[in-house]
Design brief:
The structure holds 2 protein chains of 2 kinds. Chain A is mostly helical. Chain A contains 6 helices and no strands. Chain A has 2 domains: 78 residues, Four Helix Bundle (Hemerythrin (Met), subunit A) (Up-down Bundle), CATH 1.20.120.1200; 44 residues. In chain A, 79% of the residues lie in helices and 0% in strands. Helix content of chain B is 66%, strand content 1%. Chain B contains 14 helices and 2 strands, in the order H-H-H-H-H-H-H-H-H-E-E-H-H-H-H-H.
Chain lengths: 163, 403
């Protein structure tokens, strides 16, 4: 019951995000989709993923998109796209969906019965991240820092040009 | 549970006074039909939170107006009731009866949803704040994470308000607010991370429990450790910025952008924004109390008989008074000062504080640990502060975009 509501919310948000004309409305619908997805995670008992989803996607990614839209165009609306780009988009969507569906369908994971659901506490997740997956975590951290420095360098460049 | 509650009621003891709200809740719930009991229990807690913090909001508005009046050498509200004490009621009636004006070009739906989302998000975070012994709505395993996650939703609400009004001032205010909130969210989370490192838990209830007890007279609050003190100061500065209060009230900036993102709101919707902002301030102060000030624990060993929720609200009121004091006495920052302060001072200090907390954790307790930790806090503070002062060329500002 609850799952149906949240799934419907997520899908409605996602559909609205791609069909609305106004870009800012699209972002707000996307936020709805993110929130619905977070609710589904919480429903599955994955607290960490659920809250991280809200913190990262609603709090950061959506805001980033908003900034991008407002800094690049004035009105936040844009004209109708051509038939050719629609066809190309549809083709890509079908290809991606087909590949994913085929992979999931033929994967070995579906053949086994589901193992009993482990109760992952925050402490276990933290320990796993800090001990077993310490190296990947560090690598991601380094990558993100490099990206941050790169962005700051690009942003600072404009200032130096002026005498 | 009910039997236990009745037991403590019969032994009229400090515990009964401490748990009075829980006892009342159990009493009311026990009279309801069995199927509705759990729902009623949750409903009662929610009503208590909304009512209690709503009342605190009313008290704070009059406290703030009176306090600011005193600081600015004027009376403040003094017409309604005894010394203006009924002013909040008058304000509430006024905002309820005022006409709700929506700009013609505004995005009606988003304009309507923004204040609702803000207040919803502001109230949701109270679910994980332990306001007294056993007095928390949900003890989430990831409580602090929940707090920050829901807190970040307010940014979306602020953007919705600023953008939907179709007013350049409100959009400017919203962009300022979001930039500020994102910048200060980093030191805010990093400074609270020290406590999470020390307790090994994200649950607010566990964090408060870990701060119980006393060494002779000194309570085991994290405030009384070098990293805890530094963390608390960083947290409160970031919290001031996060709740858009002076000296970080650039998003409102009445002298430059009139009132920021809620210019185009009037009547009850404006009151909702006001409420949301104050609730955010209370919530983040409540988190500061939970993380650094021992939550509902008593400050002195012989005062433990005082009910726990009274301690929480006493600490909360103290922090609110500090907020009002700071608002009345500090001038507003400039945008570049704000950003420089966040990224060049707050962030390095918060990162170094993480190291201090780790050193504190791994060193054997004793005076050496205190010395090393204090050095680790004071030396970077002095160096960074001096560097910043040196770098900030105190001269006439050159305007690049407004010529």
């Amino acid at each position: 019951m609850l799952f149906t509501i949240f799934a419907a919310l997520t899908i409605a948000g996602a559909v609205a995000a791609i069909s609305l004309r106004n870009l800012v409305h699209s972002v707000l619908s996307l936020i709805l989709a993110f929130a619905g997805l977070a609710a589904v995670y919480l429903l599955l008992g994955a607290q960490f993923i659920g809250f991280a989803q809200i913190l990262v996607y609603v709090g950061a990614v959506a805001i980033l998109i908003v900034f991008t839209i407002l800094l690049t165009r004035n009105d936040g609306t844009f004209g109708t796209s051509s038939q050719a780009s629609w066809n190309l988009g549809a083709l890509i969507v079908i290809a991606v969906f087909g590949t994913l569906a085929w992979t999931i369908h033929s994967s070995a994971a579906l053949q086994h019965a589901l193992p009993p659901q482990p109760e992952a506490t925050m402490q276990q997740i933290g320990t796993a991240l800090m001990v077993r997956f310490a190296l990947p975590l560090e690598v991601i951290g380094l990558l993100l820092t490099a990206a941050l420095i790169g962005a700051a360098t690009i942003a600072l460049h404009e200032k130096q040009e002026r005498p | 549970m009910t039997a236990l509650a009745y037991n403590s009621l019969h032994h009229a003891s400090p515990q009964a006074a401490d748990q009075i709200f829980l006892i009342v809740q159990h009493w009311i719930v026990s009279h309801a039909p069995a199927g509705l009991q759990s729902l009623l229990a949750i409903l009662l807690s929610v009503v208590a939170i909304v009512g209690g913090f709503g009342l605190l909001f009313a008290i704070t508005t009059i406290l703030e107006r009176k306090g600011l009046g005193r600081i600015q050498n004027r009376y403040g509200p003094n017409r309604v009731g005894f010394f203006g004490s009924l002013q909040p009621i008058a304000d509430a009636i006024k905002s309820l009866t005022k006409e709700d004006i929506v700009p013609q070009t505004a995005d009606k739906l988003v304009h309507l949803l923004a204040p609702i989302l803000l207040v919803l998000a502001a109230f949701s975070v109270y679910a994980v704040l332990p306001v007294g012994r056993n007095m928390v709505l949900v003890n989430l395993d990831a409580g602090v994470l929940f707090f920050f996650a829901i807190g970040s939703v307010t940014e979306v609400a602020v953007f919705m308000a600023g953008w939907s009004s179709r007013n350049k001032y409100s959009l400017l205010g919203a962009m300022r607010a979001i930039a500020q909130m994102i910048s200060y969210e980093v030191p805010l989370i990093l400074s609270s991370l020290t406590v999470i490192m020390a307790t090994g838990s994200l649950s607010t209830v566990t964090i408060v429990e870990k701060q119980a007890g006393f060494s002779r007279i000194l309570p085991h609050w994290f405030l009384f450790t070098p990293w805890g003190f530094a963390g608390f100061v960083l947290f409160m500065i970031a919290a001031t910025a996060e709740s858009n209060r002076s000296p970080f009230d650039l998003p409102e900036g009445e002298s430059e952008i009139i009132a920021g993102y809620y210019i185009e709101y009037s009547g009850f919707k404006f009151a909702l924004f006001f409420l949301g902002e104050y609730l955010g301030m209370f919530a983040i102060s409540g988190l500061a109390i939970t993380l650094f000030l021992g939550g509902w624990n008593a400050p002195l060993p012989f005062l433990t008989w005082v009910p726990s929720y009274l301690w929480f609200f006493a600490k909360l009121l103290t922090l609110i008074v500090a907020f009002i004091w700071v608002r009345g006495t500090l001038p507003r920052l400039r945008m570049d000062q704000l950003m420089n302060f966040a990224w060049k001072f707050m962030l390095p200090m918060a990162l170094l504080n993480l190291i201090t907390a780790a050193v504190w954790h791994f060193m054997p307790s004793g005076p050496v640990r205190w010395l090393v930790s204090i050095v680790l806090v004071v030396v970077p503070y002095t160096l960074l502060g001096r560097n910043q002062m040196h770098k900030s060329h105190l001269e006439k500002r050159v305007y690049r975009f407004a010529e």
